[in-house]
Each structure stands twice: as C-alpha cells, then as structure tokens.
Amino acid sequence: MPGDDPTRVSLRQDLIWRLEGVGFAGFVGFMRLLGVERASGLGGWLLRTLGPRTGTQKTVMRNLRIAFPDMDTADRERLALDQWEQTGRAFAETALMDRLVAEDRIEVVGLERLEAIRDSGEPVVFVGGHFANIETLAATIVGAGVPCQITYRAANNPYVDAQIIAARARYGVKLFAPKGGDGARELLAGMARGESVALMNDQKFSEGPEAIFFGQPVNAAPGPSRLALRFGTVLQPMSTKRLPGVRFRVTVYEPITLEKTGDRSADIARGVQAITRFIEDRVRENPVDWFWVHKRWPDRVYAALKADEA
Question: CB-based burial of residue 84 (10 Å sphere; 0-12 exposed, 13-18 middle, 19+ buried)?
C-alpha cells in the first residue's frame, strides 16, 4: 500500500481501498474520454440533479441564510441550485486539469505580481478560498515558475491519494499534506529555502483567532499569518472566477502586508481578519462560485437558525 505499513490496516480495509482506487481510476478515465467540455457539463448536470436531494442541501440553504439574510427565498433556492452545478463541474474538471491548462483556458490578471515573486527568490504566503475550480490557482502559481508548496488534505484512501498526486503532477503541481509538528517543520524548512506556500483559508477551524465573516464570528486558521510574520513576507491573495465555455479568470490581488507591533497575538489576529475579509469580498462579488456545501460558521450560529426555523 503506498506510503503505509501494511500491518496497520486489515486485509479487508486494504481490499476496500483498492476497489475504491479502481473505481476512481475508472471515473478519471471516463472523464478524460469525454473531454473538457462534455466532462464539465456532465459533472454539472449530475450534481445539479442529485445535490438538492441530499442532506447537504440543508447546509447550503442555511449558509445562504446566514450570508444573505435579506435575500428572497426564491433567489436563495436558485443560487443553491446553481452552486451545485458549479461544484459538479469543478469535480469533473479535476480529471482533466492538464488539458485545461494545455488548452489555455485560464486567463491571469496580475501575472506580473507572480513574475516579481519568482524573480525575487523570496517566499510569500499565498492565500485564497474554494471558488470555481481551485486547481486553477495552483496551476497558475507553478505555471508562472514560482517554487511553491501547494498544501492539501490527503485523501483517506492511499490509492486514490496516489492517483490525485500523479494527476496534479501532470501540470506541474507538487502537493504537500502537512501533518502535525513534522508537517509544520517541513513548511518552515521550505520557506527558509525560498519556497512559497499556498493555503486555503475558508474552511471551518475549531480553534484559532476569531474573525467576523458576514457579520458572524468564525474561528479561522492562524497559520498563514504566523508564517508571513515569521519570515517577514506578505500574504498574497488570489482567487478564480468561472467564465463561459469552461474558462477561468485567475486574479492575483494586491498583497496584504502585516504589521509587527510587538503584540504577536494581535498582529496574527489582524492578519486572520484581513484574509477573512478578502474571502467575504470575493463571495459577495460572485456567490455562485463559492463552495457553499461545508459548515463554515460555529455550531451556535446554525443552532440559532434551527431555532428560528422551528
């Protein structure tokens, strides 16, 4: 089993993983056989059809109520349906990202900023959220020649994970799944070598500084701000927007410079809020592109909604 001691899992679990790996390989092969346009369309149709019938639909609708309390119910329902299609398209497109890159389907606004980072030899901390197809961000960073550790959460199935790593390597992305203290040390060592780090910053975080997101408190990961402060560098925000015809516009925004005041906790908290504000601004600009299916707010915020629904 890739990267694992086989004595740590049962033969039954290993067999299940292998079968899942075969199924995943079959899915990827079928998507590649269809090509970019048809694969994207099929993925969008499937989740637009099936997504609203799942239990996750309640999470989507509650998230939309939290973010847009004044939005008409019918508009929220339409937005929920459209975001399912976006999610399905993005999932299907991951099997063909190398072709999407080769076919020049990604336009970049602010490419000169990436080129300046590359030429400087100094690392930055890339930050962003789950918009449209997030693989376009990684492809754009490495395509500009910026040495960067693209962090991600490893799949539970090691055979599937190996396929994901191999697929992303086809368009130049080197993935890194930090785990515990060893992972943090590797990130630090990479930045010391001049390698940048890319982190997603819009997922639920159980600890960390509190920030305001759509008028509600959330806990957000302090890691990006800690790294930027430690290495005296900037937070470099990026985002992507879906365009017609399975095309994307990636924007490299003005960097966020963090101030060192001597109060490290306060400096980190300001960085966390700046990132959170950036994510909220992007959601408000184009809400259909955001990944609405995860629970971003604390349980107490959802509990208040449920009480209101009762």
Answer: buried
